[in-house]
Amino acid sequence: ETGVTQSPTHLIKTRGQQVTLRCSSQSGHNTVSWYQQALGQGPQFIFQYYREEENGRGNFPPRFSGLQFPNYSSELNVNALELDDSALYLCASSLKTGGLSGNTIYFGEGSWLTVV
Amino acid sequence: AQSVTQPDIHITVSEGASLELRCNYSYGATPYLFWYVQSPGQGLQLLLKYFSGDTLVQGIKGFEAEFKRSQSSFNLRKPSVHWSDAAEYFCAVGAGSSSASKIIFGSGTRLSIRP
Asked: How big is chain A by its Cα radius of gyration, in Å?
């Protein structure tokens, strides 16, 4: 148990639709990151939120967006879904005290998205 | 650019045998290195991490890894594998400034255990 919970666990969407995935961080963690893991590949960094602001972004188009709330929970929104968006989406929470040194990053079990 | 290479896509070992999973990284500064394990349909679990100090790092479930700067490697080892170790293993490097830290993952090595 990492204390990071994600919902929903599985969902199916149609190409062109929009989806919202949710993440509840571990208690006390103020930083959340989102990763996309396509089948047979390693996770890829989408973006990170710290104190409700985007704080770093990977190579993903603007139709991938997010929010972080005052309680540090987070949402990942994907607009205009494409077939290639089918993947496991992982949320990771951590406590930002100056970077990765000394921090432990905890991952949730992910949300499986299938786009048909 | 930072990157992680796991040259073995799939490895099969017999239960009780020793294991070594290879990992090479590319990173300009002192790397933060991780090994994660992922069971089918599950999220990622941290096995161990290296930030500084002793280059031989002990982790959970009997795993260890050795950081070799000269070889840009961070190989994962276990002296005797158990059937429950069958899973996907990811090597990763921490990247970015302290204000936007992210983890870059390798493509993973799938470990199968032969009875």
From this structure: 13
Quote the minimal CA–CA distance from B37 to chain A in Å: 11
pLDDT in tens, A78-96: 999 999 999 999 999 887 6
DSSP string, A40-101: TS--EEEEEEETTEEEEE-S--TTEEEEE-TTS-EEEEE-S--GGG-EEEEEEEE--SSSST
Q: Residue A30 — pLDDT band, cuts 50, 70, 90?
A: confident
> Per residue in B38-74, pLDDT tens?
998 788 999 999 988 889 999 999 999 999 999 999 9
Determine the Cα–Cα distance for residues A31 and A49; give it in Å rounded to an integer: 6
Q: How far is CA B22 from the centre of its chain?
A: 8
pLDDT at residue B97 in the model: 58
Q: How far is CA B40 from CA A59, A95, A97, B21, B43, in A?
A: 26, 28, 32, 18, 9
- Find chain B residues with C-beta within 8 A of A4's C-beta: 43
**CB nearest to B102's CB, from A2, A45, A107:** A45
Which of B103, B104, B107 to mutate to probe the A interface, most A CBs <10 Å?
B103
